[in-house]
Amino acid sequence: MNRTGATRPLRAAESQPDETAIKPFRRLWLALTLSSLGHWLSVPALIAVVGALTRDDDLPVQAQAIAGVLVLMVLPALLLGPPAVLLAGRLDRRITMVAVDGVRFALVVSVPLVDAVPWTLAVAFLVAFGTLLWFPVAAAVLPAVAGGEPEEGYEEARRSLLRGGYGSAPVAALLFVALALVGDAAFGVADRADLAVFAAAVVFLAAAATTFTARALSTATAGAAAGLGALSAPLKLLFQGQRRSGRTQPDGPPVAGAGAQAGGAHAAVSPASGPVRGLVLAGTVVALTAVAVFAVARLHARDLGGGDAGYGSILAGLTIGAAFGLFLGPRMLAPLSRRRLIGLAVIAAALALVPVALVQNLVVVVFLAAFLGLACGVAWAVGTRSAQDTARSFAYLRALALVTGLVAVAAVPPLAGLIGAHRLSLGGAVYDLGGPAAALLVVAVLALPAALVAFRRLDDRRGIPLLADVAAALRGYAYTPPELEESGPAVVRDRGVFIAFEGGEGAGKTTQARLAAIWLRDHGYDVVSTQEPGATKIGMRLRAMLLDQETTGLSARAETLLYAADRADHVANVIRPALERGAIVVSDRYVDSSLAYQGFGREQDVSSIARVNAWAIGGLLPDLTVLLEVPPETGLGRLASPADRIESEPHEFHERVREGFRALADADPDRYLIVDAGRPQAEITREIQYRIREILPDPIPAGTEDVTSTFPAIKDA
Ligand SMILES: Nc1ncnc2c1ncn2[C@@H]1O[C@H](COP(=O)(O)OP(=O)(O)O)[C@@H](O)[C@H]1O
Ligand SMILES: Cc1cn([C@H]2C[C@H](O)[C@@H](COP(=O)(O)OP(=O)(O)O)O2)c(=O)[nH]c1=O
């Protein structure tokens, strides 16, 4: 099939990473991951230190000390982003990285030696400021070590760095638990976090050693004399997640102790429209609930009879849950409206606060914290993606989360101290409500209404019952209310048969559709071979617009409607007339392509796309859809011609498309033939012919044939 837009270099040339660039990148990755691990380990370690130092004080004093550490660790990211970028731009990059981690090693080691609250607070601030310096430097080095242009290789490298940076948070929490248990068992130093503090220091030292021995990081940057220009663009990429296509890729967790840029608050989210306000509220709920638990975890764990290990376990639950949520969110309940999913997730997070506060069993609380983290992760991952639909950037959401996080760390522990412990007697039984638990309940009381309002504002399926919608999504398809199922004129079909070929790029659709058409013609059938997009005159113009690499900034909805317009024209002028005269129509792609690409691929609400298309095609569905299944890398590897606009999408896009096709076929097995298209062509052809035979009419005009013919009758869709 001819393709449009041919000015891009071949994909093969692009995806081959520069061999020499890989090693420095690994070094950078390792150094950043270690450095972040040090940061994330310092958080509970320093909190445990001030906790131990204030052990004999009243709850309010303890709470204030803990709040102090947390505030000082968030503050740099909020206030000092731009100066840090400036400063980092003036220094030699490798030396900066080595120095930052070397100094942090010395600072952290000094904490147990000095053993005083004010010094611990100062170290907390300086450790966080170090992280703030590290990130812009890493961002500046990245283009050189990731092999050049901000294309796919660069993008992958950037995400890999982010994964290392944030992924080390749960690892740090687990390490903290292990060290607390060892400290407790081996040295009887329960409640003295010295071991964790020294471990954090050692990790910083290891990070410094890693960058020190990586000379390539210096040489790699020597040429990047464009200075701040070169420094701030990747910075934006790292922290605002801007992608060259204009659609953004959020990866970061909501509370970026490390370096989210408050300067990003200029972004284009104007909280004017309902859905945007819903998104903003959802972001606030995520930050508020997760950070509240984070902030009172140590005090709460102690109320529940746990020491530092218990504290670390709550943090581990929360961060591991969040990591899963961030990963699973975009894949979760694919047929469900994304906005409904965000709303449900924030409601779940707000509700989860109540048992986290009330249940008096540490193990259960750890699991509840994990659930809360999961809900927050899902809401964040899906929410930041959908911010791309309603706004150009989600940097606003990040800045908002950071500010909310700061308010939460500053307010929730002191609130716990203020309320204090209470003994409630409930009809004979007594219940001890600790200060931290009560503070979490207050947060729940604030968060729950906010979450409900967020759900209402975000809901793009009003009037469609939530339970039915979720139940259908759990079973893998999008719920369509009965009254919407048939849109447009009733299917008028005389005797024709309609067969569609679907699948990802290079699956062999064109090849197999052509072979099937030849085979059918050989057997005397009137066959119309056609394809989407671009089977009609108008369709060809739409195809050019849709596939041309020059087409940039086309919104996902406009793209959906253009494909649907092409399809409406295709049905009206080609498919329906052919079927009415009794022909067999073989189409290379049809409506499932839009559900898979524009729905699953672009992560839009699949049921809305189904509705638009149901109207466009007047309910005309194929009698048989042959789904050619092949991993994206195999299919894309088969293509020789230059990539078009859709083929150039990243690997995950094509993976989602594949999963989407699969879900559609699984939901209606009678109408699909799923073929493993990785096999030799002839084998596939035979399998398809075998299945097509089952739905063929007799080639001799009906009426001259006995009604008891062994050929099955044609079914209406
Ligand atoms: N089963 C197969 N095994 C290996 N290569 C195949 C197979 N089927 C098709 N091809 C080759 O893969 C390339 C893409 O096939 P094509 O039918 O155009 O895929 P699609 O229309 O799905 O993009 C062509 O060069 C074709 O010859
Ligand atoms: C029909 C259809 C195609 N597409 C995309 C998939 C393909 O990348 C492109 C069609 O290009 P085409 O050259 O026909 O690709 P193939 O040979 O793989 O069929 O348009 C959609 O995204 N949505 C749709 O509804």
TrEMBL record:
<keyword id="KW-0808">Transferase</keyword>
<dbReference type="InterPro" id="IPR018094">
    <property type="entry name" value="Thymidylate_kinase"/>
</dbReference>
<keyword id="KW-0472">Membrane</keyword>
<feature type="transmembrane region" description="Helical">
    <location>
        <begin position="65"/>
        <end position="89"/>
    </location>
</feature>
<dbReference type="InterPro" id="IPR039430">
    <property type="entry name" value="Thymidylate_kin-like_dom"/>
</dbReference>
<feature type="transmembrane region" description="Helical">
    <location>
        <begin position="195"/>
        <end position="214"/>
    </location>
</feature>
<dbReference type="InterPro" id="IPR010290">
    <property type="entry name" value="TM_effector"/>
</dbReference>
<keyword id="KW-0067">ATP-binding</keyword>
<feature type="transmembrane region" description="Helical">
    <location>
        <begin position="165"/>
        <end position="183"/>
    </location>
</feature>
<keyword id="KW-0812">Transmembrane</keyword>
<comment type="similarity">
    <text>Belongs to the thymidylate kinase family.</text>
</comment>
<feature type="domain" description="Thymidylate kinase-like">
    <location>
        <begin position="501"/>
        <end position="688"/>
    </location>
</feature>
<feature type="binding site">
    <location>
        <begin position="503"/>
        <end position="510"/>
    </location>
    <ligand>
        <name>ATP</name>
    </ligand>
</feature>
<dbReference type="InterPro" id="IPR018095">
    <property type="entry name" value="Thymidylate_kin_CS"/>
</dbReference>
<feature type="transmembrane region" description="Helical">
    <location>
        <begin position="28"/>
        <end position="53"/>
    </location>
</feature>
<keyword id="KW-0813">Transport</keyword>
<protein>
    <recommendedName>
        <fullName>Thymidylate kinase</fullName>
        <ecNumber>2.7.4.9</ecNumber>
    </recommendedName>
</protein>
<keyword id="KW-1003">Cell membrane</keyword>
<keyword id="KW-1133">Transmembrane helix</keyword>
<keyword id="KW-0547">Nucleotide-binding</keyword>
<feature type="transmembrane region" description="Helical">
    <location>
        <begin position="364"/>
        <end position="383"/>
    </location>
</feature>
<dbReference type="InterPro" id="IPR027417">
    <property type="entry name" value="P-loop_NTPase"/>
</dbReference>
<dbReference type="InterPro" id="IPR036259">
    <property type="entry name" value="MFS_trans_sf"/>
</dbReference>
<feature type="transmembrane region" description="Helical">
    <location>
        <begin position="436"/>
        <end position="455"/>
    </location>
</feature>
<feature type="transmembrane region" description="Helical">
    <location>
        <begin position="121"/>
        <end position="145"/>
    </location>
</feature>
<dbReference type="Pfam" id="PF02223">
    <property type="entry name" value="Thymidylate_kin"/>
</dbReference>
<dbReference type="Pfam" id="PF05977">
    <property type="entry name" value="MFS_3"/>
</dbReference>
<feature type="transmembrane region" description="Helical">
    <location>
        <begin position="279"/>
        <end position="297"/>
    </location>
</feature>
<feature type="transmembrane region" description="Helical">
    <location>
        <begin position="309"/>
        <end position="329"/>
    </location>
</feature>
<feature type="transmembrane region" description="Helical">
    <location>
        <begin position="341"/>
        <end position="358"/>
    </location>
</feature>
<feature type="transmembrane region" description="Helical">
    <location>
        <begin position="220"/>
        <end position="239"/>
    </location>
</feature>
<keyword id="KW-0418">Kinase</keyword>
<feature type="transmembrane region" description="Helical">
    <location>
        <begin position="395"/>
        <end position="416"/>
    </location>
</feature>
<comment type="function">
    <text>Phosphorylation of dTMP to form dTDP in both de novo and salvage pathways of dTTP synthesis.</text>
</comment>
<keyword id="KW-0545">Nucleotide biosynthesis</keyword>
